[in-house]
Amino acid sequence: MDRFLTIDSKKGGNGDIWMRLVGFYAVADLLPGFKLRICIPSYFGTLAEFAFGDKLTIVTDNSCKSDLEYTNLGIRHLYKDLLKGKRFISPYQRSVIHDKKKKAFKDYVNTWIFNAADQLGIVQIPAAKWISGYQGYLDIIGIKKLRHISYDDFTNQVEKNHPRLVEKFLTPVPASNDLNIPEDLSEHIVIFPNGTGRQFVPLWWAKKHMPDAYYAFFANDNYAETFKNAGLKTIRFFRSEDIVRLAQEARWTISTDSFPSHLLQTAMDKCTILVTGTLKGRIVSPAFKGKVVDADATCHPCLHLARDLHPLCAAGHSECINWHMHTYTSNILKSVYELAGHS
């Protein structure tokens, strides 16, 4: 008899939501007795259905009552909903505390409280030993009903699924009507240079090391004007499908460890992922066959702090110091010129 499991996965960053979809897609094969319904933001619906709809039921409205809901809130912000019978998954609490260079007393108190909540089943959290592993797994095993899935079985299934997903994306993804794809994009590299934290490519680095590339920004990203005014070639995209479509058309693609990187890891291997602040093992899919340039900074990993709210990172820098590291830049250029066929 099939068992239904409905998960509200609307909370979290776009990359978090996508990695969960990759994870649940693997679970659908590992546990065929479960029928998985995943609630996601409506702007993800078309692409998620395209990639994962053969095994997952993708829900983009409020038609399903969820069994569990992802959250990044603390217990004191959840208690009213808990009293109403709602149940949550909180994969972030352990990650945030793990990545702190200095732990405060309240971090140990919060860890104890979340452990107790997990024992009661009211706020479910993943085991601490997987904190450095792929987040698509970490977020899944926070769910008690799925906690018995081993990391080896999970990664093996993700690797089995990867060729199937890449084959799907060989078909050109429908782009926004307003997306302007340059006629010569097939001869150039496209770079997705921005993110909400410190993973953005500095303008000076772009001008010095990759002045001929196209730089792709979300339509309302003000950082794009900075690049355009400096004489660099820019492209504006409007929705998730546009990210994949631009990468499909380009000679090679580079992305910082922000949302576009997760789409690209699913859709193709013809790209380079740049790790800045996050642990490589946490945000790079175990199935990805493209190139990864790992962070070289001594302060890595670092807490993700929104750039619009925090002008400096936890170590006191306005931009990630990886961009000032010779080895980091050298590895980026090497990955591009070797695999994109440049001389």
Short description:
This protein has 343 residues and is α/β, with parallel strands linked by helices. Helices cover 38% and strands 14% of the residues.
| Count of alpha/pi helices | 13
Strand content: 5-15%
**Biggest sheet statistics:** 6 strands, parallel
Low-confidence stretches: none
Q: Strand arrangement, largest sheet?
A: 3-2-1-4-5-6
**How many domains comprise the coordinates?**
2
**Ends distance:** 58 Å
Give the averaged pLDDT, no decimals: 89
What coarse outline follows from CA principal-axis ratios?
globular
Summary keywords:
13 helices; Rossmann fold; globular; alpha/beta; six-stranded parallel sheet
Describe the structure.
The chain is α/β, with parallel strands linked by helices. It has 2 domains: 3-168, Rossmann fold (3-Layer(aba) Sandwich); 185-339, Glycogen Phosphorylase B (Rossmann fold). Helix content is 38%, strand content 14%. It has helices spanning 14-30, 45-52, 75-83, 92-99, 105-120, 135-138, 151-168, 203-209, 223-229, 240-249, 259-267, 280-283, 326-339, and strands spanning 3-8, 34-39, 57-59, 68-70, 88-89, 123-124, 189-192, 214-218, 233-237, 252-256, 271-274, 291-293. The strands form 2 sheets. The chain has a 6-stranded parallel beta sheet with strand order 3-2-1-4-5-6. It has a 6-stranded parallel beta sheet with strand order 9-8-7-10-11-12, with helices on both faces.
